[in-house]
Amino acid sequence: MTFVRACSLDEVPADQALAVTIGDLEVAVARNGEEVFALQDLCSHAEVALSEGEVADCQIECWLHGSMFDLRTGKPTNLPATEPVSTFPVDVRSGDVYVDVDTTLNGVTPS
């Protein structure tokens, strides 16, 4: 695993995701209480930034059509999206968020 610093934990809002670029991949970093998650910042339905949507109840909403994705699994929890998005390992160290974009937790290859 190759963890790369994505951001400071303080930069991640409680009710939205933070868009970060790691290598050539756009990643949305989100919080659910004390847990921190990272997923590809691209809706599998409409190819828009998930980081522009709201985060609640361990889900992120695509702002364009309202699809919701589980932060843990990347799976859509309602339509119109039917395909999951990539999720990545996260490590929080000394107030910084590190993400490994070379490894997907759910086996979905980033597009």
From TrEMBL:
Q: Which Pfam families match?
A: Rieske
Entry-linked InterPro entries:
Rieske_2Fe-2S (IPR017941), Rieske_2Fe-2S_sf (IPR036922)
Which GO molecular-function terms appear in the entry?
Answer: 2 iron, 2 sulfur cluster binding; metal ion binding; monooxygenase activity; oxidoreductase activity, acting on paired donors, with incorporation or reduction of molecular oxygen
- Return the Gene3D superfamilies for the record: Rieske [2Fe-2S] iron-sulphur domain
Which UniProt keywords are present, listed alphabetically? 2Fe-2S, Iron, Iron-sulfur, Metal-binding
Q: Rieske domain location, by residue?
A: 4-99
PANTHER family membership: 3-PHENYLPROPIONATE_CINNAMIC ACID DIOXYGENASE FERREDOXIN SUBUNIT, FERREDOXIN-RELATED
Q: What is the name of the protein in this document?
A: Non-heme iron oxygenase ferredoxin subunit
